Sequence to fold (122 residues):
Amino acid sequence: EGPLADLCVEEDIGVITYFSLAAGFLTGKYRSNADTEGRAREGRVSKYLDDKGLRILAALDKVSAEAGAAPAEISLAWLLRKKGVTAPIASATNLSQLESLAKSATLALSNDAMALLDQAGA
Fold:
């Protein structure tokens, strides 16, 4: 993000993103502090539960509904279309999650969907 991402694009340096799903936040699983209480990811996820994070979730929900895809799939597909991103790193704890994550590689997001997600995260 920001100047470092711009530099990588300018210098043609590929970026492999870490925590591509923001510790699970971008899956839509965590929508309030109550959703994180007592969970191992509580500290990592709670920082995203602010106005910006909720805007991002709302945009993800809209694009997910339009595309018929899970929020995690949309999030990774968005990342894959960003200049400079070589590959996002995401983890799965079961086969259905892995299959869902793999779908993101072939998911085509419209320019409108990309713009909506970009605006939400700005």
